[in-house]
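Record type: ASSEMBLY
Status: queued
Input:
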Amino acid sequence: MNLPTDLKYTRSHEWVRLLGGGKAEIGLTDFAQKELGDIVFVNLPQEGDGLVPGETFADVESVKAVSDIFSPIGGTVEEINEELADEPEKINQDPYGAWLIRASGVKEGETLLSAEEYRAFLAGKEGA
Amino acid sequence: MELRTPLCAWHESHGGKMVPFAGYRMPVQYETGVIAEHRAVRTKAGLFDISHMGEVLFAGPDALANIQNLVTNDCAGMPPGRVRYTPMCCENGGVVDDLVVCRMGEGRYLLVVNAANRRKDVEWMRAHLSGDVKMEDISDRVTQIALQGPAAPEILKKVAAPASIPEKYYTLVEHGTVGGISCIVSRTGYTGELGYEFYTGPKDAQKLWELLLEAGRERGLIPCGLGARDTLRLEAGMPLYGHEMDETVTPFEAGLGFAVKMNKSDFIGKKALEGHESPERVRVGLKVTGRGIAREEQDVYTGGEKIGRTTSGTFCPFLQAACAMALVARNSSAAGTPVEVDVRGRRLPAEIVPLPFYRRA
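Status: finished
Output:
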């Protein structure tokens, strides 16, 4: 399972790339995109929207279903990834490159996991 | 407890993503994914394990009379090898299930019913039998495999002689041989493409599956799961029980009037359906014109007024458009009518379009 060590993770399968200066990128993990299957539509927030750790800020749609995406961090939406409007499948093809939003004024949420902690969390799930 | 088809182990060892469906453990997709599998069926061919479907045998002098009473379509005069699609109604005219009736040799009939309704259907049918008839649920002894797509005929020709290949749509060969395996070969399907459905015993299932995959390899045949089965049937405008119809929907409302023969002497539900051939609400197709995807069970509005509800909806991978089917008021059902679908609190613009969304060339 692909888990870049420079990212932080959540139990709801989002990743955060902290960019410094209170900025961050957020996306979905490889596990998430595999679970979702082919993604056909992405519903992103608007620039300026507030982000609250643990609350939904976007949703993605696979052929079968809609899935809410939860913010790992607090802050404000600074930029949304326009490419995903036309090519939502980029999330499947390149989960750690296809960022959903860039945020500013970022405050870390309490439950962010390191790559190793997320890996252990996934392993625990499989064993359940 | 989850039932396993004879092909379960194959799916599991070939990247099948297994999910529970109608009490069975079935592949929703393989590593190829729903979109690629859907497109394969539209452009080349796909192979589906549909062994979860139910099969019920009727035999005896009163077999036909019983079937005629149970279903809305007229099954009299079917020669052996003919297949007929029909709803089966309850006394109030609502649909118990939709199924196909296959006329076999020696006065036997094979009824193929939806997986999710098998036990309900068998109980229902048994409760309404009369006269000299034998009814047997043989579902557990039958494996069903579907080969669907424009390449299906040429693939089948590689492993079956002409005598085993039904020529016309909705006909079957009862004693077919495919790759040396005895099976029923039916020219039917649930995808809107050319194709066949095979019925064989569990012991030959994997062999048949593998030999079909091998025969179709060069033509691009791939195994496909239930995810693609659903997007294909929706794109082809085909109804699914539990969505487009159920016990609260009549076959006329569901657009299945072509399979209801009111001039048949009698059948369960006939009295309730009399006078309702032109119902107040009808099934329509919706094509989303805004940004988003309409799903099932979402309210449909026109001019600010609620006119009905969606029954199925998805992103159609071949047409590359979000399409849905809905049950709406007849007087608001004209093709071209602009509507809005309530998608999780947001009004998504769509347009009523004629069905099917996709028709093969």
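Annotation: The radius of gyration of chain B is 20 Å.
Annotation: DSSP finds eight helices and 20 strands in chain B.
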